[in-house]
Design a protein that fits this description.
about 120 residues, four-stranded mixed sheet, 2,3-Dihydroxybiphenyl 1,2-Dioxygenase, domain 1, alpha+beta, 9 strands, 4 helices
């Protein structure tokens, strides 16, 4: 008898240099804080989620990348730009571009140095 090996979910553990600041940053861009304690925060948005950890190692954080696939990257860019996280938290934000790999995306770097690519698939 073969058992089913269905995967229910996979979550990344995202590092945070300043845990409280990072919690506020992710809330400001629209993620819902579902649960937290002093070492871990569970964030979700629709069917996507991640765990923010109260852990920081510079080399790790600055080489950490996340990818968020959305319906419209331009709308997300406007939402994040209007949230004032660049001014408030020192986040970095680049304008959306069409990429050779068939996506339109933009780069956001959170206050810890984690790079997010937020994009949507282009029509083939």
């Amino acid at each position: 008898m073969t058992q089913q090996l269905n995967v229910v979910e996979i979550k990344a553990f995202v590092p945070a240099k300043d845990f409280r600041q990072s919690i506020n940053f992710y809330k400001a861009i629209g993620f819902e804080l579902k649960w937290s304690d002093s070492d871990l925060a569970y964030f979700a948005l629709y069917n996507s989620s991640f765990l923010l950890q109260n852990f920081y190692h510079k080399a790790h954080a600055e080489n950490y990348m996340m990818h968020l696939l959305v319906q419209n990257a331009d709308n997300w860019w406007v939402k994040i730009k209007e949230s004032n996280v660049v001014e408030t938290y020192g986040a970095k934000l680049q304008a959306p571009q069409d990429r050779d790999w068939g996506m339109r995306d933009f780069v956001m770097i959170d206050p810890t140095g984690v790079l997010w690519r937020i994009g949507h698939n282009l029509e083939q």
